[in-house]
Design brief:
About 20% of the residues lie in helices and about 50% in strands. By secondary structure, the protein is an alpha+beta fold. The protein has a single domain (about 1-89), classed as predicted glycosyltransferase like domains (Thrombin, subunit H).
């Protein structure tokens, strides 16, 4: 996954996902309140999904990102990802 902040692109790792947002680890810290774009590649073998988010929590390289202004289609995909994750645990 990638986080885009302006012209800066940061590669990261998703640690957790829920319908409201996701936890990620990034190479460098982002400030709380910062608006970013999240790129989730190859979701269900489709094109990269781009989501708007706000940094809500930050502890060194660990971040909590809250989804904002996402479409119904994106909400549906996120909901399905959460269900799939739950059934795997």
């Amino acid at each position: 996954m990638r986080v885009v902040e302006g012209k800066t692109v940061l590669d990261g790792h998703t640690k957790d996902i829920c319908e409201a947002g996701l936890g990620v680890v990034l190479a460098r810290p982002l400030s709380q309140g910062k608006r970013v774009k999240i790129e989730l590649p190859n979701i269900y073998k489709s094109a990269t999904m781009v989501l708007n988010a706000v940094v809500r929590h930050q502890d060194k390289h660990h971040h909590g990102l809250e989804f904002v202004s996402i479409t119904e289609a994106q909400q549906h995909i996120i909901r399905q990802l959460c269900k799939d994750k739950k059934s795997q645990s």
